[in-house]
Amino acid sequence: MVLAGKTAVITGSNSGIGLGVAFALARAGADVVLNSFTDRDEDHALAAKIATETGVTARYIKADMSKGNECRELIEAAGRCDILVNNAGIQHVAPIDAFPTEKWDAIIAINLSSAFHTTAVALPKMRERGWGRVVNIASAHGLTASPFKAAYIAAKHGLVGLSKTTALETAEEPITANAICPGYVLTPLVEAQIPDTMAKYGMGREEVIKKVMLERQPSREFATVEQIGGTTVFLCSDVAAQITGTTISVDGGWTAL
Ligand code: NAD
Description:
Rossmann fold
C-alpha cells in the first residue's frame, strides 16, 4: 500500500487505460477520483466497484475535458490532488487536407489543453501537501508520427513537451512530472479502429491486428491496461523520485525501430 494517504485524480477514467490506472493506484492504496463527461449510474458504479474491491475511497466526478473551466473545476472538486493522471483522449483519422476543423479543435482540447488546465490547478495543491506526481498518458505517437493522425500526434507531442516543462518548473520540489508513451493497448479506443481497418485492407480481425495494427509494434502483442497501471504506480513510488521530465515507453519495441 505504498500510496496510502494519497489522492489520485485520473481524467477520462470510466473506460480503458484510465480505468486500469485507477484500479492500479487504488490497489496501491491511493484514494481515487474517476472522471468522464457523462453522468450515468454505471460511471458511479465503477467508483463503487473500486472502493469495494480495494477498500479505498473512490468517487466519480463528471467534467468535460474539452472545456478548460470544467478541467479546473474537476481538480477543485476533488479537494486533494497528490497524483494527477492526465489520460482523457480521443482520436480521429483523416488526411490533413480533409481533417475536419472541429475534430482538430476537440483533439487538441481533450488530449492536450485539458492537461494544462488540470496541472495548473493541481500544482498548488501538491505544493501545499509537499508531494506530487503528474503522469501524462501520451503515446508512441508522442515520439513518432504516422500519416492521417495529425491532431492526435500534434497533441501527444505537445503533451510530452508539457510534461518536460512541468518537470522543470517543479524540479527543486518533491514533485515529478513524466509521460508514459504506450504503443497499441487493446481498449475501446483501439477496438473502434478495427472495423474500418478491416474494411480498408479487406482482412479479417486477427490478420488486421497482427499485420496492420501491430505492424510497428515489434512484439506483435498489445500492451495491457494493467501494464500502464503498473508503470503509473512505479512513477508514483519513492524509487521514482528522481525520474522527472522524461518519457517511459510501454510499446513492445515500437520506438526502438
Ligand atoms: P478509451 O476510449 O477507452 O478511453 C478514453 C477515455 O477518455 C474514456 O474514459 C472517455 O470517456 C474519456 N473522454 C473522452 N472524451 C472526454 C471528455 N471530453 N471529457 C472527459 N473524458 C473524456 O481509450 P484508451 O485507449 O483507454 O485511451 C486513454 C488514453 O490513452 C488516451 O489519451 C489515448 O490517447 C492514450 N493511448 C491509448 C493507446 C491505445 O492503444 N489504446 C495508446 C497510446 C495512448
